Amino acid sequence: MAAALLTLTALSILGLIASFVMALAGDAPVDVAGHVLVGVFATMLNLLAHSLMIFYLIGKGKAVREAVTEGGLDGDYVRQVSALRAPVFGRATIAMAVTMTAAIIGASVDVRVLPPWPHAIIAGLAIASNLAALVSEVVALAGSARVVDDVNKRLSDVHHS
């Protein structure tokens, strides 16, 4: 599941980058329809990916808490998982908000209510914030997997003693 979530997030970021590059592609006239199509699809995929990641990490924390409680384990496993996932919640939320803002501002550019430069700046910030969120997600998933492996090993040792 973790690999699928990371793949989904990475694909959404690549879509955002592709849309950004399409808009800034040299001297050629911008393919507005293509830019909008890729941008809107990447934005929707991005919102889905980060939302699923957040819910997955919430579920992972709950599973660790239940396993520790039911197994009577000592240790700070729940705190470890909470500390690992905390940065993801904030960074993923910011990434989603900036990405949605870029899309909304993009619609305003399309109908000529705003000039393109605010959209370009916010789109660049969206890409940067999504990359930061992705790094946090990788760290959280890898760390959570280590905690779950440790909990499972301890539970196995308790049951075999």
Quick tags:
161 residues; mainly alpha; 4 helices; 88% helix
Please explain how this structure is put together.
The protein has about 160 residues and is an all-alpha fold. The protein has one domain. About 90% of the residues lie in helices and about 0% in strands. It has 4 helices and no strands. It has helices at about 1-25, 30-70, 75-110, 115-160. The longest helix is centred in the last third of the chain and has 45 residues, at about 115-160. The two termini are about 30 Å apart.
Topology, please?
Blueprint: H1 2-23, H2 32-71, H3 77-110, H4 116-160
Overview in brief:
The protein is 88% helix and 0% strand. It contains 4 helices and no strands.
Please state the average pLDDT score. 93
Number of helical segments with 4 or more residues: 4
Spell the H/E element sequence: HHHH
- Whole-angstrom Rg: 20 Å
Q: Beta-sheet strand percentage?
A: under 5%
For the biggest sheet, the summary is:
none
| Structural class estimated from helices and strands | mainly alpha
Number of strands: 0
